[in-house]
Amino acid sequence: MGAGEEERVNWLIEFFGDPANWSGPDGIPLRLLEHLLFSVAALALAALVAIPLGLWIGHTGRGSLFIVVAANLARALPTLGLVVLIVMLLGTASVWPVLIPLVALAVPAILVNTFEGIRGVDPELRDAAYGMGLSGRQVLGRVLVPVALPLILLGLRLAAIQIVATAAVAAYTGLGGLGRYIIDGLAIRDYPTVLGGSVLIVLFALAAQFLFVMAERVAVSPGVSRRVKVR
Amino acid sequence: MITFDGVTKRYADGTVAVDDLHLEAPTGEITVFVGPSGCGKTTSLRMINRMIDATHGTISLDGVDVRTIDPPTLRRGIGYVIQQAGLFPHRTIVDNIATVPHLLGWSRKKARAHALELLDRVGLAPELAGRYPFQLSGGQQQRVGVARALAADPPVLLMDEPFSAVDPVVRTSLQDELLRLQAELNKTIVFVTHDIDEAIKLGDRVAVLRVGGRLAQVAAPAALLSAPADEFVAEFLGRDRGIRRLSFVSDASLRLRPDLTVPASSPVSEAAGRAASAQSPWLAVVDAGDRPLGWVNPAELPRDGTLEGVRLLPYGTFVHGRDSLRTALDAALLSPSGCAIAVAEDGGAVVGVATRESLDEALALAASDVGNGDPANG
Ligand SMILES: Nc1ncnc2c1ncn2[C@@H]1O[C@H](COP(=O)(O)OP(=O)(O)O)[C@@H](O)[C@H]1O
Ligand SMILES: [Mg+2]
């Protein structure tokens, strides 16, 4: 281990070992909670918009063009630029300057994957479902969604990754979250804090991933995931 | 009864898939739609359960215009089986079968119990109930598809090339299974296939369609084989029409001789005497239970000992009262004697022997029927 690496390990020990970092408004628990709240709120809002829209467009086939536009627009959006722009427009008095860009970032991934999931269901299966006498709504709810669920969850997971990673920008607006450690730390050249903050953000993202993998195990039918215990 | 009355389907792009179709699918019978690819079979079938709506004309179920019934309600009363089975991948086999009962609001317990019963009915082991569709073979999936279609006991069953995607051996067993089920259930079945042999095997009535969605002929299979309406139908029926038609002629017209059998325990000399008095060189050797063992020509054997241990010649059998003239003829051609052995359905004991003379008479009688309407169904 080189001297530089040793120094960084010491930074981490310094950051995580400091009791002052574990309490108060600047403490890890509170920052973590803030980060979690932004992330969950942004994901929930994005899902609320994108899932019904994706299901509807995928099921009816109407408005498919919208999907293409949304997907391309999303790739072109600079998140930081958007945050700054919205802060300029709305000020920093509310949470919207953070939430709007995060939601805007998350919607396309969910929308496109939900749409693709529903569209991608074997037309024979759709046909059989109607042929059995299921209504349009029942076909969607009882057949298309369960079969498309892996893709819908993938969309949510991709959105979550982006949100968690980008939620750090919330710090620019003075709204807190784990990004504060990076910004505040950089401002005063407090590298242990910068490093500690980045490690926390990475761990947070990994935890979110893990949650989604678990959710997939629970929610997706073994008949769809083809993961069945040998009996 | 399903009635097509002047039914036409023109798709949005102008394709006329079905053109002025008049047809009846009688209650309790299998009506087969057959014809080359693109002739409008699927379109015709799907207009019955309103997966597609007709452009002109009326389709009625026992006199009720299907257009007056809302599609989900209509479809819950009609079984529907498609080529790839279309099973719900996220549901277990038993839940797949229980789909329609569930929609109809049966209790969960009743629906599952009934589904298990159907699983057995279509010849699947109860262990499969908890599996998912991807864990089943194509043939097993098709059986589940049939069970699912039958689950709410609908009077009508629509089947669109249900056995086309499985290998020939499995296909034959699925066809036999369907005929066995139909003998018990007496559903009104409309069956679509592009395979004329399948149509002839399964259909009580066969409707031949030509491209452009026009009905070329509708008739019982035997009548179709003996009297195709035109060149197109004749060509579509293919070769060996005469021989294939014999499948529909019962063996009732075959005169059987009871005096051409001999027990294996008999001395050769006695066998020779029996052959001489029967004026036949050939005798069918039978075991103690009267089951056939093979043919002998006693005149060619050394005159000592019994028939035990003598080299017997190959034989062919047909089941008396069940098999067709075609099977009997086939059995005769499998033996150097040129005779076919008729056996009882139960136990397989020999009932008698159809000689070349009696086959000849029966064939002549069958041939004389051509043009006089349908021969007796076997
Ligand atoms: N949705 C559709 N739109 C336009 N043409 C169609 C459609 N479905 C089928 N067709 C056309 O109608 C004709 C009959 O099709 P179909 O009923 O599927 O035939 P078959 O089942 O006998 O092969 C074909 O020419 C086919 O291309
Ligand atoms: Mg077809």
TrEMBL record, chain A:
It is found in: Cell membrane; Membrane. The chain crosses the membrane at residues 36-58, 65-90, 96-118, 139-157, 163-183, 195-215. It comes from the Bacteria. Its main location: membrane. It is a multi-pass membrane protein. One of its GO terms (biological process) is transmembrane transport. Pfam families: BPD_transp_1. Keywords: Membrane, Transmembrane, Transmembrane helix, Transport. GO terms for cellular component: plasma membrane. Residues 32-212 form the ABC transmembrane type-1 domain. PROSITE patterns: ABC_TM1. Belongs to the binding-protein-dependent transport system permease family. PANTHER family: GLYCINE BETAINE/L-PROLINE TRANSPORT SYSTEM PERMEASE PROTEIN PROW, POSSIBLE OSMOPROTECTANT (GLYCINE BETAINE_CARNITINE_CHOLINE_L-PROLINE) TRANSPORT INTEGRAL MEMBRANE PROTEIN ABC TRANSPORTER PROZ. This is ABC transporter permease.
TrEMBL record, chain B:
Signal peptide: none annotated. The keyword Nucleotide-binding applies. Its EC number is 7.6.2.9. One of its GO terms (molecular function) is ATP binding. Keywords: ATP-binding, Nucleotide-binding, Transport. Residues 2-236 form the ABC transporter domain. It is an enzyme of class 7 (translocase). Transmembrane segments: none annotated. The keyword Iron-sulfur does not apply. Pfam families: ABC_tran (PF00005). InterPro entries: AAA+_ATPase (IPR003593), ABC_transporter-like_ATP-bd (IPR003439), ABC_transporter-like_CS (IPR017871), CBS_dom_sf (IPR046342), P-loop_NTPase (IPR027417). It comes from the Bacteria. Belongs to the ABC transporter superfamily. This is ABC-type quaternary amine transporter.
